Amino acid sequence: MRRLPTLVRLPLTLVVAVAMLAAGCSSGTTNTTTEATTTTTIPTTTTARMTVLQMVEDANEKIELVPPKQLAEQIESGDVLLIDVRQPSEIQRWGTIAGSVPMPRGHLEWFADPASPFFKHDGVFGDFDRRTVTFCEGGGNGALTAVALQELGYRNVATLKGGIRNWVNSGLPTVAGSESSTGSQ
C-alpha cells in the first residue's frame, strides 16, 4: 500500500480531528489521536494533584501515630518490628533505635511484598499481623511507608510520631547505626 506524502497527511489529520470534534466524538474521558489509518486512545486521569505535605497529612490520618514514650513501652513489653526507613547517612547523623531494621524507603515495598522477587525471606516480613512501627527523621517518610505497608496487607502498622528527632528530644536512647539489627528479628 502506498503511503500519502507528509504534506497531505498533516492536513488530512487535522480535518479528521476537526470532524470528530464537530460530530461530538470527544467525551472528555479520552484523548484520541488519528494518523492516516491508525487510531490510539489514551485514557485521561482525574486524580487531583497533591503536594507532598498533603500526602503526609493524608497518610497521618490513615495510620496510628505512636508517641515516643508509648513506643518505648511497646518495645519493652513485646515483639515489635521497628523499621528505620532513613538513608544510611541520616542514620549515622542521628543514630537509631536499638533493634531496628534499617531499610531505606525506596526499597521497602519490594522487600515487604511476598509477591515481589525481592521479598525478604529472612523473617523480617511476611507476618501480616505482627506489630510493625516505621520511623524516619521527622515523621513524613515513616507515615508514607506505614500506609504502603497497610496497602500491602500488613494489619498492625504504625509510625513513630515526629520520627527519630522526637524520640531523641524525648530523652530516649539511640545507638550508632552499625548497632541496629541486621534484619534477623
Outline the fold blueprint.
Layout: H1 6-22, E1 30-35, E2 38-43, H2 52-62, E3 64-66, H3 68-77, E4 80-84, H4 88-94, E5 101-102, H5 105-112, E6 131-135, H6 140-151, E7 157-160, H7 163-169
Parallel strand pairs: 3-7, 4-5, 4-6, 6-7
Antiparallel strand pairs: 1-2
Keywords:
7 strands; two-stranded antiparallel ribbon; five-stranded parallel beta sheet; 185 residues; 39% helix; alpha/beta
What does this structure look like?
This protein has helices at 6-22, 52-62, 68-77, 88-94, 105-112, 140-151, 163-169, and strands at 30-35, 38-43, 64-66, 80-84, 101-102, 131-135, 157-160. It has 185 residues and is of the alpha/beta class. It has a five-stranded parallel sheet. Helix 2 (52-62) packs across helix 6. It is globular, with a radius of gyration of 25 Å. The N and C termini lie far apart (67 Å).
Terminal residue distance = 67 Å
Q: Which structural class best describes the helix and strand composition?
A: alpha/beta
Beta content:
15-25%
Shape: globular
How many distinct helices?
7
Q: Give, in order, the helices and strands.
A: HEEHEHEHEHEHEH
Total strands: the figure is 7
* Main sheet: strand order: 3-7-6-4-5
**Main beta-sheet strand count, sense and barrel state:** 5 strands, parallel
Spatial extent as radius of gyration: 25 Å
